[in-house]
Amino acid sequence: MDNLKTFFIFGLLIVSLLLWEAWQKDYVRPQQAAQVAATIDEELPAITTEQQQDLPDMPAAAVSVEGLPEIDQTTAISTANKIHIKTDIIDVYIDTQGGDIRNLAFLKYPVESTTPDVPVQFLAETASHFFVTQSGLRSDVQAPTHYDQYTTEVNQYELTDGQDTLVVPLHWRSEDGLNITKTYSFHRDSYLIDVDYQVENNSGERFTAYPYAQFNRIRPQEDSGFIYTYTGAVFSSEGNEYEKVDFDDLDDAAFSRTATGGWTAMLQHYFVAALIPMNNEQENGFYGKSINQRNYTAGVKMPTISAATGDIAQAHYQMYLGPKEHQRLEAVTENLDLTVDYGKLTIISQPLFTVMEWIHRLTDNWGWSIVFLTVLIKLAFYRLSAASYRSMASMRKLTPKLATLKERFGDDKQKFNQAMMELYRTEKINPLGGCLPILVQMPVFLAFYWVLVESIELRQAPFIFWLQDLTAMDPYFILPVLFGLSMFFQQKLNPAPQDPAQAMVMKAFPVVFTVFFAFFPSGLVLYWVVNNILSIAQQWHITRKLGAL
Questions:
Q1: Which residues of 123-160 are buried (b: 16+ CB within 10 A; e: fewer)?
Q2: 283-291 and 295-301: which strand pairing?
Q3: What is the pTM of this model?
Q4: Are 59 and 212 in contact (CB under 8 A)?
């Protein structure tokens, strides 16, 4: 039993290390990188017209995207003029070269809660943080791709009071009479952007092209092989509602699939960029590609549009560029809410978040939501925990007898273990009784961890007093110290190990875990503190009732 307990404690220690690494990877380091990127304003040289024929970051004019020559993607960032758009929640810059979004900041989401005026820069074209949209029309004749120059009458737009929509038109004209208007529509309190193409064909010949749209980004810095929240491409279609294709997969082979409906996205912690084609009756071509193992594209080729001379052709798609908020994602399109990725424990995590969200509507405080949800989880496992604590209390009552056996057999561990197991049989005690209930509860504990890590609703959410950000570590280390103390007191209620070496290791665990938890997000530490306090109260009551104190 002592060996099993030590094994489980070591397992918890390893899991805690992995969770800490995950939080560092997906919260602390991305924030640091965002701050660095915000200070970099250098742009790379524009690509020349001669280089625009066939590029690896652009789908081919034919159906296949294979067989394109590769160039250094660092030459593909433009220095052209920008159009500035500001709504109530986003700050956007569109480049007139390509007519695409090159910078987008979330005004409601600061990088740090202590600096509310510095928003998260989601899309950017700096050397350290390249993540942009690209779109165009691909044709066998001249048509605007994301390298062609658009014109605009106005280069500054701002959503005013009483205005619900901003319409931003961009124009492109060919020498032979092809007039194309690319229009963006931004909406109040919305991260959903409408994009429309209108083609007026006065060229004297039929015009045929397919619209495409894609995201192009660099791979984030690799930190370790530990567990982490997913960053990479995702594709959704009927029968493949949520398919991850990470950067390594794209390095191995390009991704390609045709499907009616569906969407494609690039994910990162807390935020998602998604492309949603609106034509659900014809097939769309979804694709992903690695460019020199540096840049990665994920996009969609939409059904062909065609206009006879004198006619008009149109195309329409949407982009969601925003936070992974459940309610917003559910309202956009089917299965987009799956981008709130709880991993393999989604079946447990989603109900937990639903309950926590319901509690939040009552308390208007995510900290109290964590506290009350922890209480509910503890109540759900009350009987299972009680069985574990009764087993521990029974073993605690045997401590004097075990000490006597230890003195009798001395260093003969084999005879001591045989005598100990015989004593357990005589007293009708299952030495695994204190461990198995804990194993049953572990999936719920881990699922709740993913709820705390993945839910943007908790990002920079305040609790009480000194805790003003549940996703940041406790600035005064009060919660980690309380956790260490609670772990120490809980150990006092457990049967003491008979092996002196194990006893010394057990005594060190509260200190070791206190150090680890000092760097954990305070919301997660809050959960463990409340859980430990409730466990101590329950275990003390049962141990006292059985006369083992």
A1: bbbbeebbbbbbbbbbbeeebbbbbbbbebeeeebebe
A2: antiparallel
A3: 0.78
A4: yes
How far is Cα 146 from Cα 156, in angstroms, rounded to an integer?
21
Per residue in 30-78, pLDDT tens? 444 444 333 333 333 333 333 334 456 656 544 333 322 333 333 343 4
Q: Write down which residue in 306, 340, 374 finishes a domain.
A: 340
Q: Look up the domain containing 211 and give its range.
A: 45-340
Amino acid identity for residue 267 in this structure = L
Residue with tokens 């931003």: 168
Question: For 126-206, where are the E strands, in sequence order?
Answer: 130-138, 156-158, 165-173, 178-187, 192-201
User: Following DSSP, what letter does each residue of 16-29 receive, concatenated?
Assistant: HHHHHHHHIIIIIH
| CB of 96 closer than 8 Å to CB of 150 | yes
CA dihedral 442, 447, 450, 456 (to 10 degrees): -140
Tens digit of each residue's pLDDT (9 = 90 or more) over 306-320: 999 999 999 999 999
What does 186-254 look like in DSSP terms, one character per residue?
Answer: EETT--EEEEEEEEEE-SSS-EEEEEEEEEEEEPPPP--SS-----EEEEEETTEEEEEE-HHHHHH--
Same domain, 274 and 139: yes
Which residue has 């000194």 as its token pair? 466
- Residue matched to tokens 């305070």: 522
Split into its structural domains, the chain has a count of 2
Task: Using pLDDT thresholds of 50, 70 and 90, give the confidence band for residue 549.
Answer: low
Is the pLDDT at 492 greater than 50? The verdict is yes
> Are residues 457 and 320 part of one domain?
no
Q: pLDDT tens for residues 323-351?
A: 999 889 999 999 999 999 888 888 899 99
Task: Name the phi and psi angles at 333, rounded to 5.
Answer: -160, 165
Nearest to 141 by CA among 256, 309, 315: 309
